[in-house]
Amino acid sequence: MREMPANQLNPRIKNVWRISDAIWIAIVFLCCFAPFAIIAAVEPSETWAGFVALMVAVVFAALFVFFVVVLPPIRYARWRYELTDDYLDIARGIFWRKRFIIPFIRVQNTDTRQGPVLRAFGLSSVTVATAAGEHEIPGLGNEEADLLRDRAAELARLAREDV
Asked: Three-class SS of residue 84?
């Protein structure tokens, strides 16, 4: 079996994942909690609504701790990538490991992306597109992402010229 790719993401990506996951969990929590809390407040005799709201809050707290405290360091440790002259190698996943070997002859496009949370931490994502789909390397420093994007585009151009 091939060795794992050598490069890791920027450690600041853990905070980006924490903030992004916390936002999504809070939105889902409010959507699930609010109806039952309103029923419990408007009609106090409906004790089941208060119980359901309490259970939603407990599940929210457990998910919040899992996604914000436990998951990011594990996710970070399992995310690897490597750029060689012939291919881009990406390995990720905690329970279901995924390994992508993307030959540069198949690369159609390379991009960098940066949302508001990534921008706040000075990070970018590099996306490599093929006919089969897009592969993203999240959480690279802005300069590193630009260099990786440009190098991948150059290697893809050279691979097409060799054919």
From this structure: coil
